[in-house]
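Exam revision sheet. Question 4 asks you to relate a sequence to its structure. Input first:
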Amino acid sequence: MSDRSKESLLEENREQKAGAAGFPWIRASVFVLVCFAVIVPFTSVPEKLKDYAKEVYAARRAANTPLPPPKEPVAETTPEEEIPPLPKPVVVEPEEPEEQIVPPQDHTVESGGDIRKMYKGFKLKTHVNVDKGDLASQERGDEESYTAEYTLNINLPQPSKTMSELSKVNPKLDAILPGLSSMVEDAEVSGFYYNLYQNKVDRLKRDALKLNVLTTKHNFYDCETILNLSHPESKRKVLLMQADMDVVSDGSDGDRLSKMPDEIVNSTHYQPFTSYGWPKQTRTENPMVAGWKKRIENAKKEIADPATKEARKQWLKDRIEMLKRGIADMKARSFLIAEYDPFIVMPVNVITNRDDKHAAKVGDYAVVIHDGKIYPAIVGDGGPTFKVGEASLRLAKEINANSSPYRRPVSNLTVTYIVFSGSRDADKSAPDYKKWHQECTSLLEEIGGLGEGYELHQWEDLLAKTPESADEVEEDAAAEAEESGEDAEQEKAPQE
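Answer key, structure tokens:
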């Protein structure tokens, strides 16, 4: 190659390098990319890219979905028919999973939380009012800036007064007592009914701020009616009451039941007395005396303890005096035993009333009607002035075998109590169930008698003494008398 040719090639090569060095390709590329990034968001390109991504997602989702069953064959179209365009695929955007909200567990009164579900039975309605206030530093010192109010609303029930109303809760009542209809025509609602519910309301007002001690809705509405009735012909006065039935388990009698379970004898809650009592017939000691003597000894030990405070000592001394009076009463009298004797309980203000001629008195004969059966009984004890519908455990178990001191036999207001006002015997004596049956039968006749097919229940005496047991009682009494005589002789003997 000639020198000139070499020079030409070198010159041509220098021109190419000069051209390459003269234009900034990298900077130009960067500039184009920046422009693209700035301008593209304002065009339809992003939307198209987004739609494309949705189509891809839908296609993948469809691929994972089971194929639908094959459709029936479609007839082929003729050349003349216009084939419609295929519809655009429906793009289904993936749904966001719903947030799993776990509701809080209901609080109960025992946990100190939400009191809307208290077993008391009332419904608590709440509402939060928010008003515009002042500075927080000032509102903090204002007693009225953060307050709560609650109102206890009560519907006072109306007493049933007609035979149809009485029969709603005791459907067989008119058939059991055919003469009752004529008595109800002139029925007078007893003042004891209104007094009962007034006592309930007063008690609620007193305990309004003590939600844990408010009476339950069930116990508030425990009485359907109390009526003063008189038979138009015999003029026999009757106190009729419809209520539920709770259980009482008090009473003791050493003459008929010389031994009782240790858990009862040593109980600080069991009451050995009933309002109905009579003079003791034997020298057999009431079994509850031993438990009360033990309580006295325990009280004396606590008083002697230097750590016992003076207020407690005074209370124990008063308690000892009460126990001594109770022991003296148990040594002098006998009482009904709820587990063995059928009797009912009336409020104290009823049995102590001297003005109302229809008022029930301790010892008055009565009948209890439930589920087509009639049970003879007596008014044997007095109870609180704010509740009704109590009967002895013996009567309760006869109505419902599952009854216990802690389980009522009848929860609904379906029990009818009829007390024959002023029918008690002049002298109180130990229960004689045959006599009770006879007396209640005669008294029922005075108000029209029992309906056809109904009869008065006959109680069995579960504590009746057999000849052997009667002899044992006499032997025990003789032995006690002999021991007492020996003790007296020893007391008279001079001390050495």
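Marking note for examiners. Confidence is low (pLDDT under 50) at residues 65-84, 86-94, 488-496.
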